[in-house]
Amino acid sequence: MLDNIGKLVHQQRRSLNLTIEKLAERSGVSVSLISRMERGDVNNISVKKLTDIAQALDMEVGDFFIAPEMSDINTLALVKYLTGLPETERAHVSEVLMQVINL
């Protein structure tokens, strides 16, 4: 589980063009912990630190606990986008996306 979290932290940090040092500054979490997380060398982390990292990355803690096969940053962004739409609009956008995918 934490390996996947580390992968997401790394992907999102890079997509925001943040260095590990800048993420550490934004989150109040040590450079060492973030670096170890991204390498998959962390066996546990406090909810507080995980929340601070998520907020610094413009994410929610729940994003870290999505099924691994659904948890790359682009898939998470798409799910968030679709979830934020009104139901009828979400259905329409989903239909259009499926048409594009099936081309």
From TrEMBL:
One of its GO terms (molecular function) is DNA-binding transcription factor activity. GO terms for cellular component: cytosol. SUPFAM superfamilies: lambda repressor-like DNA-binding domains. Keywords: DNA-binding. The keyword DNA-binding applies. Residues 9-64 form the HTH cro/C1-type domain. InterPro entries: Cro/C1-type_HTH, Lambda_DNA-bd_dom_sf, TransReg_Diox_bact_type. This is Helix-turn-helix domain-containing protein. It comes from Lacticaseibacillus chiayiensis.
